[in-house]
Amino acid sequence: MQDTVATSNLVEVDQVWFGYDERRILKDINLVVPKGKVVAIMGLSGCGKTTLLRLIGGALFPNEGEIRVAGRVVNKLGDAELFELRRKMGMLFQFGALFTDMSSFDNVAFQMREHTDLPESMIRDLALMKLQAVGLRGAADLMPAELSGGMARRVALARSIALDPMLMLYDEPFTGLDPISLGVIGQLIRRLNDSLGATSIVVTHDVAEALELVDYVYYMSAGKVEFQGTPDEVRAGKLPSLRQFVYGESDGPVPFHYPAPEYRQDLLAQ
Amino acid sequence: MTARIAELLRALGARIVNNWVWRLGFAFRFLWVTLKESGASFRRFHLTIREIYFTGVLSLIIILVSGLFVGMVLALQGYDTLVRFGSSEVLGVLVSLSLVRELGPVVAGLLFASRAGSAITAEIGLMKATEQLAAMEMMAVDPIARVVAPRFWAGVISMPVLAALFSAMGVFGGYLVGVQLIGVDEGSFWSQMQAAVDFREDVLNGVIKSLVFGVAVAWIAVYEGYDAPPTAEGVSGATTRTVVTSSLAILALDVVLTALMFRGT
Amino acid sequence: MMTRKELDLWVGIFAVIGIGAMLFLSLKVANLASFSAADTYQIQAKFENIGSLKVRAPVKSAGVVVGRVSEIHFDNESFEAVVTLNIDGRFKFPKDSSAKIMTAGLLGEQYIGLSPGGDSANLKSGDTLKLTQSAVVLENLIGQFLYNKAAEGDGKK
Question: Is residue A11 part of a domain?
Fold first, then answer.
């Protein structure tokens, strides 16, 4: 209920450490996401970016540090307050995570039916509008099993914006999509962000799409933020691990060869 | 030498604690949370009705057919033995008491565990693996209240109904074979049965058994599904565990309940 | 995906046949209809030996079941067995009726046979039957038979 100092940042991650037992996944993470912006968190698999997303969403709690969304400290909220906050957040999971036992329409209408008392006729109109926004109003009656990967992800997107959230979280939205769907999703992320007046965080390792789309980039490696900047700054960045990541170089700070004994010795050994 | 034995014991203890004690404790906590979150299952009863359809109604065929067959076999085998003592007129008693007291709850329970229990585990496990449960949480809907609790209560409600149907079909099957096929006197078949089967002692105890079994199977099924590792092998392992653990639980509980209910009548 | 109406219909059918099965089991298979616990009155009878009489054994008069044995215990003062009978309220018996422990068939279960007396007043709940005949115990019969045979043999001498 308490609002801290008015800030233009919707999300603030403040000196966050996170890990299980001996394994540290995130080390002293500091980042901010200004209101209305689309921010990318990029890095190799296993660098901790999805974990960071879960922390922001309140599914995990940091060992140290604070995560603030709209001024509220996420890891200190009670159950009721956390649920209240989540109604203002939307999350798109990596493969959509649509409820397979109901139609696309029912998926989109899910949150409206659970959290509002709106009459069914109004819910119907709203759900169709959301589907229209992602271009799938015609697929409203299809079951998730009948949708292609790209379509399923778009329906999931429509589902996550059902209650007009102020913060959108995207977990690897570009993974496994064909070029057309890639372009569509990218456009939708930007368009929805701007039309809803929302803020978006996109976790991805799809460099090309992300740099086209976002306003600001955080590059993570081995649990730390190694670089941050606008897309242009990222393309021009001199940091070797960043260059290797952005330009897809096969050898660099992340070596091509997995550690192995000397080649000649290995071949000659009996 | 003693060091080896100590090491073996330590490893055994570690296995028992890690596999059994932790999981058992977690399973109890899970049951407690499920019961706490059960309000929605009844306030929005259509959620539970949907699950009763999938666990109960879809199990009808196997229960009714199996009940019929079991009753028929009871009559065939029973007649063979009773007729040697000239007591074939108590065939109805044999068939009905076996079913109502034991076979109805137990066999229906085992069938329910393998058909409905495994389906519940697979469904919940798959929802977990495809992040549907996580998505639900992010949408501020408690997956335990929305997904787990209705399935639990559907199992508890369906089980006694299915056990009663199994017993009824079994008696009918016994009648078909005993009276129609073999030729035992119809009048004595039913009258001896009515004289020997007591509502409170036999029928009601059978219902209590099936309720207990229903709770056990439903609990194990939802727990294994919720706890399953989110991979293909994880879900399939959980499904098998549900069937095996439920079956063992039913048989073990049956020993305890029978000893409590039916000693020295 | 079934509509709500279809689901409700099937679950309703499920519930109905489930209740039907329970009714069948209670009425046709068990004996629920024949005895309602409310309409019974209790009388007591004392026996020297109840043989193998068990609780829930029937109480018959003229061969028809009119009640059930509800409780059996041992009276430490008179060293007799005290049997409590639940009699169906529809049937009244005279105060001087007698109870006898009979056997159904040669080796069958034991039950209580109630023979009416001639008193104009009837038994009320809590009364005790004055006239009782204990069970025939096989060992005593054989012992008696051997004793008689031995006595006969002596007499002839």
Answer: yes
If you measure CA to CA, which chain C residue comes closest to A106? C1
Q: Which residue from B130, B138, B141 is facing A91, i.e. has the nearest CB?
A: B138
CB contact under 8 A, C28 and B194: yes
Query: Tell me, what DSSP letter sits at residue B17?
Result: I
Domain count, chain A: 2
In this prediction, residues B227-241 reach a mean pLDDT of: 94
The 10s digit of each residue's pLDDT in A210-253 is 888 899 999 988 888 888 889 888 888 888 888 888 888 877 78
Q: In what order do the strands lie in the sheet with C58-61?
A: C128-129, C40-47, C80-88, C64-75, C58-61, C110-115, C98-103, C131-133
Asked if C24 and C46 sit in the same domain, the reply is no
Q: Are residues C22 and C89 in the same domain?
A: no
Beta strands C128-129; C40-47: pairing state: parallel
Tell whether C1 lies on the interface with A, counting CB pairs under 8 A.
Answer: yes
Find tokens 């790209």 and name the residue.
A150
Q: Is residue C80 part of a domain?
A: yes
User: What does the pLDDT look like over A146-182, one tens digit per residue?
Assistant: 998 889 999 999 999 999 999 999 999 998 888 888 8
- Residue A144 pLDDT > 90: yes
Q: Note whether A216 and A233 are within 8 A (CB).
A: no
The per-residue pLDDT for A3 is: 47
Which pTM value belongs to this model? 0.81
Across all residues in chain C, what is the average pLDDT? 83
Least CB–CB distance from C26: residue in B46, B56, B203: B203
Q: Which residue has the higher pLDDT, A177 or B229?
A: B229
What pLDDT sits at residue C155? 67
C2 interfacial to chain A (CB closer than 8 Å): no
* Residue A202 pLDDT greater than 60, yes or no: yes
- Determine if residue A48 is left, alpha or beta; phi over 0 gives left, psi from -120 to 50 gives alpha, anything else beta: left
Q: At B23, list the tokens.
A: 């999981």
Alpha helices in chain C (DSSP H): 4-23, 138-156
Owning domain of residue A188:
1-88+165-232
pLDDT interval class at B192 (50, 70, 90): confident
Q: Are residues C43 and C28 in the same domain?
A: no
Q: Which residues, 6+ apart, have CB-to-CB distance to B201 below 8 Å?
A: B261, B262, B265, C56
Closest-CA distance, C27 to chain B, in angstroms, reads 8
Q: What is the edge-to-edge ordering of all strands in the sheet holding A216-221?
A: A89-92, A167-171, A199-204, A38-43, A216-221, A224-229
| B111 min Cα distance to partner chain A (Å) | 25
Give the closest of B53, B164, B169 to C22, CB-based: B164
3-state secondary structure of C40: strand
Q: DSSP secondary structure string, B36-54?
A: HTTHHHHHTHHHHHHHHHH
Any chain A CB within 8 A of the CB of B36? no
Q: How far apart are alpha carbons B72 and B172 in whole angstroms?
A: 8
Instruction: Give the residue numbers in A contacting B (CB under 8 Å), as ranges.
Output: 57, 59, 83-84, 86-87, 89, 91, 93-95, 97-100, 110-111, 114-115, 156, 160
Examine the domain organization and report whether C25 and C97 are in the same domain: no
pLDDT at C30 over 90: no
C29 with C51, same domain: the answer is: no
Take residue A123 and report the two structure tokens written for it.
């819910």
